[in-house]
Amino acid sequence: MTQDKSHKGDEAAVPSPDELRKQVEATREELGETVEALAAKTDIKTRAAEKTTAVRQQVAEKTTQVTAQLKDKATHAAHAVQDRTPEPVRAKAATATGQIRHQAGHVAELARDKAPEPVRVKADQGLQAARNHRTPLLAGVGALLALLLIRRARRHQ
Asked: Which of 23, 81, 87, 140 could serve as a FRET partner for 154 with CA atoms 20 to 30 Å apart?
């Protein structure tokens, strides 16, 4: 009878069929998740696409940041040049700018009158682009004129 008692103790250690089914099901789920993870790691095309998207986002963010920095620096440089430029030089630059605008307008009218239609269309597109970017364009031209006038004034001293 002692054998029966020890045998009954062994039976308590043996899992029931329901417990075995649950363990098998849990093992299958874990195995399925592991296979999916391994499949994702071996899917080079998808991983490359994800990496490409991430890099594009980083480049776009960096480009935006650098563009803002450059605009700030250009504005700061234009103000610095303007602040350091003596008033007579600024007045001459303003006068020269006005004269250049007037002459450019006159030349543009003459060219428009004598140019063929396809050339006029292209010129209008270029003019529209210049108008859309007028402020940076004028700031650059103004800064260049100011620098040239400063150099000229220093040479004559």
From this structure: 140
- Give dist(CA 125, CA 5) in Å, integer: 100
Q: Are 146 and 89 in contact (CB under 8 A)?
A: yes
Tokens of 90: 């600024």
Q: Each residue of 9-60: pLDDT tens digit?
A: 555 578 898 999 999 999 999 988 988 888 777 778 887 888 899 998 999 8
The SS3 of residue 15 is coil
Cβ–Cβ under 8 Å, residues 111 and 59 = no
Closest alpha carbon to 148 in 96, 71, 72, 70: 96
CA 36, CA 38: separation in Å to the nearest integer? 5
User: How many H helices and E strands in the chain?
Assistant: 6, 0
88 and 100 Cβ atoms separated by less than 8 Å: no
Q: What is the pTM of this model?
A: 0.35
